[in-house]
Specification:
about 200 residues, mainly alpha, about 0% strand
Length: about 200
């Protein structure tokens, strides 16, 4: 076992909930681990429907997330790092499939959104997203389904995906946005005409 893996396991055991952890703490951590991720797609949808000035940002964040998740799946295939419970380490408080842990999908979703917001000047919303992402990362380690390096890996993959998208967006972002906004206005012409959502 290399030094990095030793450190990874040591940090996990320090953060993982023990047998004496109260039920209320476990329930709160479970809520954070399982529910907060739905805020990301909700935010993207709300931004698209009611904040036209943020549509480009929403689409970029979505694309970065998709690219990062794709990279994450490749990493999981070629370097299938086991989850803590798969090697009998620590305590596991929520059910999870026995698949590769690195990098964390939950971590990627939050990190992709936070990177896009922070690196395009949306500092307040980006900082809030980062804080929520840290809370989710902590909760999933606390509950025994991820290692700390799974979360750092998610951040690294998300930053890499953001950088990959930059030149592609510079070249094709404008026409792509025009095409999907045209399709949006065609498909949802009726609620737009009613004023329920923005054109």
């Amino acid at each position: 076992m290399n030094a990095l893996e030793v450190l990874n396991r040591s940090l996990f055991l320090q953060l993982n909930a023990g047998e004496q952890t109260g039920a209320g703490v476990i329930s709160s951590a479970t809520f954070i681990a399982d529910v907060l991720i739905y805020l990301i797609p909700l935010t993207l949808v709300l931004a698209w429907l009611w904040q036209p000035e943020r549509r480009q940002l929403a689409v970029r964040a979505f694309l970065v997330c998709c690219i990062a998740l794709g990279i994450g799946q490749l990493l999981a295939i070629f370097w299938p790092h086991p989850r803590p419970f798969m090697i009998g380490l620590g305590h596991t408080w929520i059910p999870h499939a026995a698949d590769a842990s690195f990098p964390s999908d939950h971590g990627i979703v939050f990190a992709s959104m936070a990177c896009c917001l922070l690196l395009t000047g949306e500092l307040a919303l980006g900082a809030l997203t980062a804080i929520l992402g840290i809370a989710v990362a902590w909760s999933r380690i606390f509950l025994g389904v991820h290692f700390p390096l799974d979360m750092l890996g998610a951040l690294g993959v998300s930053l890499f995906a953001y950088l990959l998208l930059l030149p592609l967006w510079a070249r094709w972002g404008g026409p792509f946005m025009q095409a999907i906004e045209k399709l949006y206005r065609y498909l949802l012409a009726w609620p737009i005409a009613k004023g329920w959502i923005r054109a």
